[in-house]
Design goal:
single chain, 367 residues, mainly beta, Immunoglobulin-like, Porin, twelve-stranded antiparallel β-barrel, five-stranded antiparallel sheet, 3 helices, 7% helix, 53% strand, elongated
Length: 367
């Protein structure tokens, strides 16, 4: 190639290099999501913000602008992450989870069309509770219908007064849901008790272990109804010599529902049946019974981060010749922090089998 033909070639190459962005600049190009947010009926959802998070970093969160009159949204995100559409924020500031959607790789400069759907308009699914975790009951938080996303730890301590003994009890429970089983919650509860017997003497030791599995039965239906079903097993791991365990396996099947009954109250309820094995309590053999169970609850926001809790529970006699167990409870959940919540409650027995009174206090933490 002579000088006369080389010069134009070099000039063209130089121009191309000057116009082409460097590799580093290409890597800095944003990744874009766009699409429509609609109801199950295909109607546009207006004024809602879509929340994206990085799949490998739950603390990396981006919130898009409000959807327009046709439900369209568009958000630019840093490239290099794998993104998950996690939730939608309503105009009133409530969070509506989108479930477990697959991750999408954020390629530099790419535009991904992602159509999203929520079950019903905000007026129907609006949650009156002011903060995440406020929907947990005390006596029947297992037999209830709220969905848990992630991991939760509850610690409770309290005093129980019976006719012939006073008991100090501490309990620790943990529950989790997983991306691979998004509609399933697994949990367990362990405790330690000390009893002061009116007849003289005292006893202390571990209580029975409880474990449960609960299936969330789908998204909310019209008017905020939610449903779940599950199983709860009480394993005889406690100290039978101290009277803190009857050495009998108990299993319970239940179905639960909750409704947003108005702008300021959530109502809960469950029906169940418990299967009680025969037990040996201090040498006396007790015939286990199949016992029906039911519970009602209400959660009422009192403040931006304070929720009042009311509960009524009833369960048939555990053993032949025994009494049913029924209690009424009033409590409060207070969340001064984003993920933590202080809890306190008092309950009163309505039958002889229930504690005469019970004081509870604790703290819950979500991840």
């Amino acid at each position: 190639m002579n000088a006369r033909t080389l010069a134009p070639t070099l000039a063209v190459l130089a121009a191309c290099l000057a116009l082409a962005p460097p590799a580093a600049a290409q890597q800095d190009l944003p990744f874009t999501f766009e699409g429509r947010l609609t109801t199950a009926a295909g109607e546009p959802v207006v004024g809602h913000r879509v929340v994206f998070r990085a799949e490998d970093d739950p603390l990396a969160v981006w919130i898009g602008p409000p959807t327009d009159a046709d439900g369209w949204y568009r958000i630019q995100l840093p490239s290099g992450f794998t993104y998950v559409a996690a939730a939608v924020i309503t105009p009133r500031g409530r969070r509506v989870d989108l479930g477990s959607l697959p991750g999408i790789s954020g390629e530099p400069g790419a535009v991904r069309n992602l159509q999203l759907e929520i079950g019903v308009p905000e007026a129907d699914f609006e949650d009156p509770l002011p903060f995440a975790g406020a929907d947990r009951l005390f006596l029947q938080f297992v037999e209830d219908a709220p969905r848990l996303d992630g991991f939760r730890i509850d610690g409770l301590a309290g005093g129980l007064a019976f006719e012939d003994a006073d008991v100090l009890l501490t309990e620790l429970s943990a529950a989790a849901s997983f991306a691979t089983l998004p509609n399933v919650e697994l949990g367990a509860r362990v405790g330690f008790a000390g009893a002061d017997l009116d007849a003289g003497g005292d006893a202390s030791g571990p209580t029975d272990l409880e474990a449960w599995a609960r299936l969330w039965l789908g998204p909310r239906l019209a008017r905020g109804a939610r449903f779940s079903a599950g199983a709860l097993a009480t394993l005889p791991t406690g100290d039978a010599e101290t009277g803190l365990s009857a050495e009998a396996l108990r299993t319970k099947l239940f179905a639960a529902a909750r409704w947003d009954a108005g702008p300021r109250v959530t109502v809960t309820g469950h029906l169940g049946v418990r299967f009680n094995e025969d037990a040996d309590l201090g040498g006396a053999v007790l015939d286990g019974q199949v016992a029906p169970a039911l519970g009602l609850g209400a959660l009422v926001p009192l403040h931006e981060r304070v929720v009042a809790v009311g509960e009524l529970t009833w369960e048939g006699a555990r053993f032949d010749g025994g009494d049913p167990d029924a209690s009424a409870l009033l409590g409060v959940n207070w969340a001064p922090l984003t993920r933590g919540m202080f809890r306190a409650a008092v309950s009163f027995g309505l039958t002889d089998a229930a504690p005469d009174s019970r004081l509870l206090a604790g703290y819950a933490l979500t991840f």
